[in-house]
What does this fold into?
Amino acid sequence: MKRTVPLLALVSWLLPGASAAQASLVFNFNFTDPSGSGFNDATLGPTRQAALESAASTLAGYFNVAGNVTVTIDAGSGGSGNTLASAGSPIPLANGFQPTVVQDKILTGTDLNGSAADGTMLVNFTQPWFYGNTPVSGSYDFQSVAMHELTHTLGFISEISSTGQGAANQTSGSPDVWSTFDRFLTDSAGNPLVNPSTFAFDTSKLGVLTGGPGSGGMFFSGPNAVAAFGGRVAIFSPNPWQQGSSGSHIDGGPGGYINEAFLMDPSVSSGLGLRALTTTEQGFLRDLGYSVVPEPAATGLISAVGLLLCAAAHRRLRA
Ligand SMILES: [Zn+2]
It folds into this structure.
């Protein structure tokens, strides 16, 4: 019986210790706009910054990470016309399927980009936005779009160009540099667009890049995504090619080939948007190497409401 007290003491000491040491993923933003504009606007700046932090926190809640990982994103104003926002993260220029800097940092703890930011996100603040949880008629859901853009930096992005060239712009049909995402891009029958052994684009598949919507276009054939969706997932492959959008989005939502809304649709309606990763998108992220938590707290209700409000309004492209 003498051992009981020390054991209890040990347990009571371990529990808070274990909780405090729980690994987490944090997005840290450098707000790069000049003083008085964009994220540093005198009036709206603090609201915009807080909304981005909130969206990033929601997204981060989906990931189990091995240690405490801080991803740094340069966030500023950019884009014109119908574009709402864009984002990216560099990849190493070596032939093969490469992770983004953000992806590699989360998966391995290694920082491939040294002291520079791990990714970049640009927002077109000339578009109408709402930043909180209450939709404003005719305005776009900033937090939903921010989650979408940050998911691109995680590696939900293709490096295949309209000519079948990769990130290093080698002659189509030659070994090139691709994203991890590209490893899983196929035609509707599951034939890869990039040869997994030679890292060369299969030039007989050029028509697939603009063969959508439907069975003539691109599909994502990662095993986790296929299992979650119940088949290969159609990828946005319109004709003509849309630079920055083709290949990097699910062909879903109103007007899309798949009659279902996804966070990673190529365009979004005004009103409350999705602020959640669907189970299909969680599958994509598992295929990209992540350990994904199925249901972080407090996203389900917003997601359901968003599905109802997305249907009719004007849609804008987002890169
Ligand atoms: Zn996008």
Observations:
- Confidence is low (pLDDT under 50) at residues 1-21, 298-319.
